[in-house]
TrEMBL record:
<feature type="domain" description="C4-type zinc ribbon">
    <location>
        <begin position="199"/>
        <end position="233"/>
    </location>
</feature>
<keyword id="KW-0175">Coiled coil</keyword>
<feature type="coiled-coil region">
    <location>
        <begin position="50"/>
        <end position="149"/>
    </location>
</feature>
<dbReference type="InterPro" id="IPR003743">
    <property type="entry name" value="Zf-RING_7"/>
</dbReference>
<dbReference type="Pfam" id="PF02591">
    <property type="entry name" value="Zn_ribbon_9"/>
</dbReference>
<feature type="domain" description="CT398-like coiled coil hairpin">
    <location>
        <begin position="31"/>
        <end position="189"/>
    </location>
</feature>
<dbReference type="Pfam" id="PF24481">
    <property type="entry name" value="CT398_CC"/>
</dbReference>
<dbReference type="InterPro" id="IPR056003">
    <property type="entry name" value="CT398_CC_hairpin"/>
</dbReference>
<protein>
    <submittedName>
        <fullName>Zinc ribbon domain protein</fullName>
    </submittedName>
</protein>
Amino acid sequence: MQLELPLQEKLLEIATLERNGDVGLQPEASEEAKELAKLRKKLGRTRDASASAQLAVDDMELEIRRIQEDERKLRRRLDDDRRQLGAATDPTTRKDLQHDLHSSQVRLQNLTSEMQEAHNEVHALRANRDLYRQQLGELEVEVEKAQRAADAVPLDTTVEDARGRVEKLKGELPADILAAYEERRSENGIGAAKFNGRSCGGCHIMLPVAEASRIRQAPATEVPECGECGSYLIRGRA
Ligand SMILES: [Zn+2]
């Protein structure tokens, strides 16, 4: 292959960029973006937990109101029983009233201990809910901070830059040279490589002395090939 020296440099740059794998890869997410995603997930979980904790409080408060309502009804019933007992003279009626009075008192006692339990429970549930609320508040601040940090990271344009650079360089090479390079690259995955005087930069094999010397002494505008891997060897200006 015959190629002007400046174009040889361009061919080497194309081959190097393409081999580095910078072309065609997705840019990796920044550490800041990963941290933000992690915190957002945590925020979502904490929000769910906080909502569940609030629901548990609501349920228990409803239960307390139910007990209070039952207590009110029972007290009214006790008052009624006592009032009727004060007036009743018939033994059977008095016996029924006393029986009802007694069972209502027992039920009221049960309700009182139920109420005590519900109060203890709602107290614990509210403490739990408050803890989640506090965590949620702290997390929201953290997420905001992480968002600002992620926004401050400049977009990674390395990949775009490399791709654009390769396209530009390819536009500057003669079509037949480019075709020869592409064909060689499709065969050995390298195409063109730097020759450092002894070994090929593509396969990294130390070439036999005679071959290395032949390559070194080839005319400057000639592009020799590696006897091992077939890559076009660019010798550079030195
Ligand atoms: Zn080679």
